[in-house]
Amino acid sequence: MEGNTANERTVKYYRLSEVEERNSSKSTWIIINYKVYDVTKFLEEHPGGEEVLREQAGGDATESFEDVGHSSDAREMATSFVIGELHPEDRPKIQKPPESQVTTFPDNSRYVRAALYDTLVLGTVAGFCV
Ligand code: HEM
């Protein structure tokens, strides 16, 4: 793709219209925090049920996803369904997600930071115990 070559963090951008077409049980895409998720294979496994995902199919599910207060495990699980990002030109067409949740793809920094923090805290606690 022009303009995106020689970039190892190449992101696949989808137009809103492309996402909107994926609104059936054959192919279910949703947008959360400007990222595009293919949840087709996850429908039956979703602990919150298939129906809530179907209702959001082909559109922006950010608000409903955040309203549920999904656990960090759920957020981590979600990263495995990311197929790309909403095209920047289409972002104003949907509701702006909370600033804190917007990151660029792929996003591992949060987990790396969490792991470092855990090591530090556990290391200190272990130090006191011995
Ligand atoms: C890739 C996207 C998603 C993933 C990986 C995911 C994953 C999960 C997981 C692991 C849970 C169990 C509770 C937890 O760990 O927080 C859960 C619960 C739930 N999810 Fe999702 N979810 C996704 C998207 C959504 C969306 C878009 C909605 C709303 C439209 C939704 C609604 C719910 C509800 C209502 C529950 C049940 C909460 C409860 O019983 O307390 N989820 N989800």
UniProtKB/TrEMBL annotation:
User: What keywords tag this UniProt record?
Assistant: Electron transport, Endoplasmic reticulum, Heme, Iron, Membrane, Metal-binding, Microsome, Transmembrane, Transport
- Which GO molecular function annotations are given, in alphabetical order? heme binding; metal ion binding
Q: What is its main location?
A: endoplasmic reticulum
Q: Note the superkingdom of the native organism.
A: Eukaryota
* GO cellular component, as recorded: endoplasmic reticulum membrane
Membrane topology annotation:
Single-pass membrane protein
Q: Which Pfam families match?
A: Cyt-b5 (PF00173)
Q: Which InterPro entries match?
A: Cyt_B5-like_heme/steroid-bd, Cyt_B5-like_heme/steroid_sf, Cyt_B5_heme-BS, Cytochrome_b5
The cellular location(s) given in this protein's UniProt record come to: Endoplasmic reticulum membrane; Microsome membrane
What family is reported?
Belongs to the cytochrome b5 family.
In Swiss-Prot or TrEMBL terms, this protein is called Cytochrome b5
Q: Which organism is it from?
A: Paramormyrops kingsleyae
Source species taxonomy: Eukaryota, Metazoa, Chordata, Craniata, Vertebrata
